[in-house]
Structure formats: C-alpha cells, structure tokens
Fold:
Amino acid sequence: MTAVGIDAIEIWTGNLKLDLPGTFAPQKGEDPEKYTKGLGLNASSFPDSYEDIVTMAANAARRLMERKGLEPDDIGRIDVATESAFDNSKPVSTYVAGCLEQVFGSDFHHANKGERKFACIAGTQSLDDAYNWIRAGRNRGRGALVIATDTALYARGDAGEATQGAGAVAMYISEDPSLVELSTDQGYGSADETDFLKPNQQFPSVDGKRSIQVYLARMREALEDYESVAGDVHPDDFTFAPFHTPFPGMVRRAALLAYRHVIRDTSIEDDLAAEIGRQPRAEAFDDDEAYHDALREYMDALKETERYQAWYDATIDPTLTISREVGNWYTGSVHVARASALKTAFEAGRDLTGETLLIGSYGSGAQAEIHAETVQEGWESEIEALDVDEQLDARYELSWADYEEIHDAHNHEMDVDVEEFTTPSDEFVFDGWGRMGERKYRYVE
Ligand code: CAA
Structure:
C-alpha cells in the first residue's frame, strides 16, 4: 500500500510576544515560577492588529507552497481547522484561497474547501479527512492543504489568560510523503463534556480545572481504544509522543499517566518494583477511593524514578520546546509538538527514518485521538527548512500597556481600533471590512 501522510509543514507565529514570567506574572502578583516551572511557559505569541486566523493561515500556506514548488492545480482540497472563526457560513478556507490567488498566478476553483470544528482536535481530523480522501482514490493525483490556525485568547482575568497564543500550521498531505506516514490504526475517546466552549463568542467559557481532568480521561480512553486495534503499546515502540499542548504542564501530567498505563505488566514494571512496588490493581481494593489513593501514591513515586525521568527527557520533553515560547495554538498545538520533536532530533544529528511517533490529539467538548506515524526518508530537509527560530526572535515584545491595548482588538464582538506594533513585510494583512461585512485581505511586499 502506498504511504499517505504529511509531506511538508510550515509554521507561522503571531508577530507579537508576551513575556509571561517577566511581564505577565508581576502584573498578576504571581511568582514567575508558576509560569516557567508550573505551566512550563516562557512566552505567548500574540497577533498584531493586522493579523488574524486568515493572515496567519495564508502566510504559512504561501511559504509551504513556494518552498515545495506547488501550484494551485496540485491542491485538490483546502481544509482549515480553527476554533476562532468569525463567520458561521463562509469557511475560512475560502478567504485563504482568495489570499493565495493574489500571489499565485492561478486559482483553486477545482479544490474542495471546508472548515473543521471540534475544538483543538479539528486539525488532526482534517489530516484524517485528507488521508481518507487520498486512500479512497478521489484525489486525482493531487494533495490536500490542511491548515490549523487560531488566535487562542481568553477574556481578561480568566485563568486561561496565562496560556494564550496565536499561530498557524500548514501541512501538505500526499502520497509518498517526505515527513511522516500516518497509521491506519486509530483510537478514540469521546464524550459530551462541558469543560471549554465558545457559544457564539470569541473568548471561551472555561472550567479550567475540570478541563484538565477531561483531557486525561479522554486521552486514556483513546489509548485503550488504540490498543484494541493496534495491540498493546510499549514505551520502546515509539521515539517521541507529541501530545496536544495547551501548556507543557498539561503534557507532563498526561505523560505520567500514559507511562504508567503502558508499563503495566511489562518488565519495566518488574524492574521498578523493588524501588516503588508494583502498580495497584483495582481488584485488590474494596472501594474506589482507596484504589485511587494508592494509584496517586504510586504515580508520585514513579515520577521520581530515574527510569521515568530518562524516558520523559527523551520522549516528551523535546516535543515541548516550541510550545514553551508560543503558548497554546489550539488546533495547531499537537502539530507544533510533532515539529518540535523532529526539530530537536534534527539539531542533534539523529537519523529518525523508519522510527515511530505516537500522536495524542485532543479537543475540548471532548475528544481525544491516538494514532502512530512513521518518519519518512527526506524528513531532515523538511525540518531544516523551518525558520521558526528566526520568526520567534523577530517578534515584537509587548509591554503590559501594549498588551492591555491590543488584547480586545481580537474579540470580534468589540470594535477596537489599535495601531499596529510591527511593520508587515512579505505577508498577508487584514485590510478592513467589505460592504457585506466580509473581512478583506491584501498582500504587503
Ligand atoms: N512554582 C512552581 N509551580 C507553581 C507555582 C510556583 N510558584 N505556582 C503554581 N505552580 C504550579 C501549580 O502547582 C500547577 O501545577 P500542577 O497542576 O502540576 O500542580 C500549575 O503551576 C498551575 O497553577 P494553578 O493550577 O494554580 O494555575 P491556575 O489556577 O491559574 O490555572 C489552568 C491553570 C486551569 C490550566 C488555567 O490556566 C486554565 O484555565 N487554562 C485554560 C484551560 C486549559 O488549558 N485546559 C487544559 C486542558 S483542555 C485542553 O487541552 C483544550 C485547550 O487547548 C484549551
């Protein structure tokens, strides 16, 4: 069977930066270490006043198409995943296509366009749609452009304000991909949950503490479902495990839970038994509370073992390096985590061809999905082409006063006119409103 997967990836960050320990924490009267150590974040990427989900998506897609020498005719579908959309009817992908048509000499009139919504997991669902479309033989030799784009901002004063971010990830999905092949096997954990939602509003209603528990419960369910089709997962089976990363501290929790699950009944559990005992089994307890107390105690001890820490440092930590500097990009976050891991391996001169990644995607509301990916020959040149470090360094750093001024410019319900902090160059910008309330865009040389 021909491999189908991600052929190329491009990342576009919002042009502004908010320093969390240095600028945000002092204003909130909080210890900077809550950010650096607790949440695991140094900074948030923030959109300038001329940026939005369309400009960031179109900028990432343009770079990707130019680098890969793709023309509109090579693209049979454009799917945009976002939870920051501003229109209930016209999909963001039409705006993105309109932008790209300004710089490419031809049009996307024969490409199927859509918009995917299921909170942060919609990016992975769009990859799935592209995969299925190619596997079904309906692609006529063409590939799919999948773009995950969000301005992940929270209301001022909401606890989530600490985890904001803005950026886009564009991916080209094709046969014989150069980056990763997607597995056919998948596992889902999905339930009707009320933890994070945006009922026709741009800034979310969030039950932060509950959202953490829902993430863990659905991820565990997805892992078990994945194992039911792919067989038991063992820590040696995969090189990296990129998870959806609302903030690195969330992944730290998920990783510990996942590790405990996958070492159960393995020689790793046996090896660790002398040091921390064996994992508690539900059948040995009369009541749930005692079982859960014992589990918590085991996890606290597991976290401190050298074995676990070595696994975490090798398998999870490299997925978090970009996220620490950009915050949550919602639909793009898990794709940033994959790129981050591959980039770290590339910089260390490792050869990953043929190795496996275990991907844990998640969207509030809520659904988790697990699948595997196999790194393809050619991955190094795809990762080498990323200029994410340069983009991060070029961001304008917001003062607290700047931040207060610009935050609400990105709430679509409010009419806030803010001067831009940066000067756009070689990128798409928001160019005002049209007569039917549509947003207009133009390319700035
Ligand atoms: N030094 C070291 N660590 C510190 C510290 C200090 N001085 N002060 C606090 N911490 C630690 C805390 O112990 C905590 O870590 P643990 O959870 O590991 O114990 C961490 O820093 C955060 O501290 P708090 O829990 O006190 O922070 P908070 O009350 O401000 O809220 C939050 C944190 C609930 C995650 C909030 O930021 C939030 O609501 N975020 C938005 C929702 C979210 O991201 N949920 C994640 C799951 S849902 C999802 O994944 C979908 C999505 O993208 C939104």
Residues 31, 33-34, 37-39, 120, 159-160, 162-163, 196, 206, 208-209, 211-212, 215, 244, 246-247, 249-250, 328, 330, 362, 364 surround acetoacetyl-coenzyme A (CB under 6 Å). DSSP finds 15 helices and 15 strands in the chain. Residues 208-230 form the longest helix (23 residues). Residues 4-444 form a domain with the Peroxisomal Thiolase; Chain A, domain 1 fold (CATH 3.40.47.10).
